[in-house]
Amino acid sequence: MGLVRWFVGVLFLSTLLLCSADVHHYEFFVRESKFKKMCNTSTLLVVNNSYPGPEIRVHRGDTVFVNVHNRGKYGFTIHWHGVKQPRNPWFDGPEFITQCPIRPRTNFTYKIILSEEIGTLWWHAHSDWTRSSVHGAIVILPAENETYPFPTPDGEQTIILESWYNGYYKQIIDQALATGDPPRLPDAYAINGHLRDTYGCPSDTIFRMEVDYEKTYLLRIINAAMNEQQFFTITNHTVTVVAQDASYVRRFKSDYILISPGQTMDVLVSANRNVGLYYMATRPFSDSAALAVDLHFYWRFSLQKQSGWIDCFLDTASRNGRYGCYA
Ligand SMILES: *[C@@H]1O[C@H](CO)[C@@H](O)[C@H](O)[C@H]1NC(C)=O
Ligand SMILES: *[C@@H]1O[C@H](CO)[C@@H](O)[C@H](O)[C@H]1NC(C)=O
Ligand SMILES: *[C@@H]1O[C@H](CO)[C@@H](O)[C@H](O)[C@H]1NC(C)=O
Ligand SMILES: *[C@@H]1O[C@H](CO)[C@@H](O)[C@H](O)[C@H]1NC(C)=O
Ligand SMILES: *[C@@H]1O[C@H](CO)[C@@H](O)[C@H](O)[C@H]1NC(C)=O
């Protein structure tokens, strides 16, 4: 009897060890889709008709297979940004470096081996201008036997900062290559595909996140904007930075963050201010004197019941990222 129990115990333990890393399968169908924004209809290359693309959600140490079907007109590849891919370089993705482009009407299955990465990364197309719209988050939760090194948040939200270009995505890079100039500046900036609602166009929307009073949220912020550092803030709130580029960091509090293109930052924010609506705001840092000083981008951040709107701005013209609000 004692022997049987012991044997069962060993079986159980080995099953637990075998189950510690999961394998996930995703199907990506990449094609051109039309999006109505800024009173324009623009054609973008996207995954599964979605801008931004689908989220990959795994635990630390898992393995992911992504079968990428090219239903577009041109070849491209997908890069798993920041995944170390130990002993697996041929699935890293840069076009013409580790593989040839995935040709139209063909598919290619990536094997993505996660090892010590924890927090947030992202994936993006790695050819010409395609990464401006072919991108999405990789959320890496602690392994089943691990916890966060900070109090477990009550909820979480992925925040993808993006640049928006009106028109046909391919034209932007073709024009730049033809003239030898840098690609033109974006027409707008987006949070999770929302451009804000102040362009006076009926199809434009604002990104809203609803939170409960006194709860703490983990924001997984990804700068997917093309070549631009971005400021990000939430009015009247401070954020605590807990991770960067899929590593935990020594925690620090700040009124705003400055995030580089390709970078990710995980921050905690507590909904501990008066119940109301607060803007999330992002705008590019730019050295260019050509950028108008009054370009302000607003997003609304809703905290339970509405009690009014406040306007906020990030003033990067003064180079120190000051921000303020008017009621
Ligand atoms: C993408 O779309 C295909 C076909 O509609 C679907 O089978 C697949 O699950 C979708 N992938 C994701 C990641 O949502
Ligand atoms: C539509 O896009 C074109 C090309 O970028 C731009 O010139 C025009 O101003 C846009 N229309 C609106 C309403 O923003
Ligand atoms: C292409 O997709 C099919 C079906 O979805 C799959 O069986 C095949 O292995 C894929 N080929 C490659 C090269 O990934
Ligand atoms: C969790 O399990 C993995 C795989 O068995 C192991 O490498 C890791 O050290 C464990 N982590 C903790 C905190 O026990
Ligand atoms: C936000 O902060 C500003 C400046 O400190 C203050 O005037 C305003 O009342 C605050 N708003 C809310 C809703 O707490």
Automatic annotation (TrEMBL):
Belongs to the multicopper oxidase family. Its EC number is 1.10.3.2. PANTHER family: LACCASE (PTHR11709:SF410), MULTI-COPPER OXIDASE (PTHR11709). This is laccase. Pfam families: Cu-oxidase, Cu-oxidase_3. The lineage of its organism: Eukaryota, Viridiplantae, Streptophyta, Embryophyta, Tracheophyta. Keywords: Apoplast, Copper, Lignin degradation, Oxidoreductase, Repeat, Secreted, Signal. Gene3D superfamilies: Cupredoxins - blue copper proteins. It is found in: Secreted, Extracellular space, Apoplast. Residues 1-21 form the signal peptide. The keyword Signal applies. InterPro entries: Cu-oxidase-like_N, Cu-oxidase_2nd, Cu-oxidase_fam, Cupredoxin, CuRO_1_LCC, CuRO_2_LCC. Transmembrane segments: none annotated. Residues 31-143, 156-283 form the Plastocyanin-like domain. It catalyses: 4 hydroquinone + O2 = 4 benzosemiquinone + 2 H2O. It comes from the Eukaryota.
